[in-house]
Specification:
The chain has 410 residues and is an alpha+beta fold. Helix content is 23%, strand content 28%. It contains eight helices and 22 strands. It has a seven-stranded mixed beta sheet with strand order 10-9-17-18-19-16-20. Strands 12-4-3-15-22-21 form a six-stranded mixed beta sheet, with helices on one face. Strands 7-11-8 form a three-stranded antiparallel beta sheet. The structure holds flavin-adenine dinucleotide.
Length: 410
């Protein structure tokens, strides 16, 4: 048995307290927030009791890649200047509408790691053919009252800091957890409720009291297929949509097309694009604390278009997106971008229309509430941004729900 026992000696008596072991599958923001809030909740509970009934759990995050999920930053260095182009090619910014999340981000705002992004936003009607000027109308300025936030110097920086701050959590990168049913059934011990996880080579990753799955829903379906998780059909209900991201870079500000220069009004940071396969354009080098970058622009294609073309050849997609980008930004031979890159996200956004499925506890009847899925018997939780609105704030809310369930059961 791998259970650890810690002896706590007090004046009154010695108590043997079992350290719960918790596995989190996925090292994106849902996983990192969950580990952070679990550590905080258990530390607080231990501090508040003379003989600790609860002690800080051993948490292990398993992440198949080497980075932090859909928070993604790509950069490239110019050999001549040593300066970088940089693109936040996943999430561009996030909101903090709830008081709890505002409180959570406050220290990071204080340290400057997180910055409000008061972007000037325009509506941009693409020209129908290349060479014509698009129509641009001022739309709004994101303000500190309806704030959008970014992490600096990169969108990935916050994830790295959250990971570094974890004290009782081990993160195993480049570890892909195998579908639970492949190996797990015979390893479940009836009395201890522990689940043994394995990687995709069949190597044991250990025994866990709780398993929290935070991967996108199509991957959750694969992980839990044929497992005993109740009503797995419910994972399929929220549809996750693809998104192609185009990354463009120019060698200097002087080489930018007029529409991106500050000589043509209105000056803007974000464009909502109409009449195009492009959805939004973000100017990276105008973001707070990004002014040392070479001119860099990130473009997100529309989700519906991306979904239709999700299995297309990436070069063909890139070429179509470039044509659309040229119609939106109206560059000519002299103002063409020198850097062009394209990324396919198979699971980018949650289709909110379909996401009215889940209830808080799989054992209760459906109440149409959004939230995590819990199997209290096996102590498995299915979480992730897609259990709510599909954004960064959802990751935090789902982490809160997960921690509440585990604390209540412990
Ligand atoms: C193009 C794009 C634009 C976006 N724009 C915004 C925005 O403007 N504002 C906003 O708030 N949000 C935005 N989002 C959404 C935001 O990025 C997500 O809500 C958030 O990053 C989701 O975090 P997560 O931890 O739930 O999932 P993920 O970040 O997907 O993390 C899940 C992790 O699980 C890992 N994994 C999967 N299978 C396994 C396995 N078998 N074993 C181990 N690990 C596994 C994956 O590698 C991944 O790192 C955007 C996303 C994209 C792609």
């Amino acid at each position: 048995m791998t259970t650890e026992h810690i002896l706590h000696h007090t004046d009154v008596e010695a108590a043997s307290v079992e350290v719960p072991s918790i596995a989190i599958i996925g090292g994106g923001l849902t996983g990192l927030f969950t580990a952070t809030l679990l550590e905080r909740a258990f530390s607080q509970a231990s501090d508040n009791t003379l003989i600790p009934q609860m002690t800080v759990p051993q948490i292990t995050i398993f992440e198949k890649s080497r980075s932090v999920g859909r928070l993604a930053t790509r950069y490239r260095t110019d050999d001549h200047t040593g300066k970088n182009w940089q693109w936040a090619f996943g999430a561009q910014f996030f909101t903090a509408k709830t008081a709890n999340f505002q409180q959570f981000i406050a220290p990071y705002l204080g340290s400057g790691l997180i910055q409000p992004w008061c972007a000037k936003v325009v509506d941009l009607h693409s020209a129908s053919v290349s060479g014509q000027s698009p129509d641009i109308q001022q739309k709004e300025q994101w303000s500190s009252t309806q704030a959008r936030y970014i992490s600096t110097p990169k969108m990935t920086s916050w994830g790295r800091v959250l990971a570094d701050e974890l004290k009782h959590t081990t993160i195993n990168f480049k570890t892909r957890v195998a579908p639970l049913a492949h190996y797990t059934q015979q390893s479940m011990s009836e009395e201890s409720q522990k689940t043994e996880l394995f990687d995709d080579t069949g190597r044991s990753l250990g025994l866990f009291d709780w398993v929290i799955c935070t991967v996108p829903n199509a991957q959750a379906i694969a992980l839990l297929a044929n497992s005993k998780f109740p009503e797995p059909a419910r994972f399929t209900e929220p549809k996750m949509l693809a998104c192609y991201t185009l990354m463009l870079g120019w060698d200097s500000v002087a080489q930018l097309p007029d529409i991106l220069s500050h000589e043509v009004q209105p000056v803007w940071d974000v464009a909502y694009v109409n009449g195009s396969i492009i959805d939004r354009i973000f100017i990276e080098h105008q973001k707070p604390k990004h002014d040392n970058l070479l001119p860099s622009v990130t473009i997100h294609a529309r989700n519906d278009w991306s979904e239709q073309h999700v299995d297309d050849d990436i070069e063909a997609v890139k070429s179509q997106l470039l044509t659309a980008a040229q119609q939106a930004l109206n560059w000519n031979e002299g103002s063409r971008p020198s850097q062009i890159d394209c990324h396919r996200w198979r699971y980018a956004a949650t289709d909110k229309v379909s996401n009215t499925y889940s209830n808080h506890d799989a054992s209760e009847g459906s109440n149409k509430e959004t939230g995590i899925l819990v199997d209290n018997q096996q102590q498995w939780i299915v979480s992730g941004d897609w259990c709510a609105q599909g954004n960064i704030e959802s990751c935090y809310q789902m982490a809160q729900q997960t921690v509440a369930v585990i604390c209540q059961a412990t």
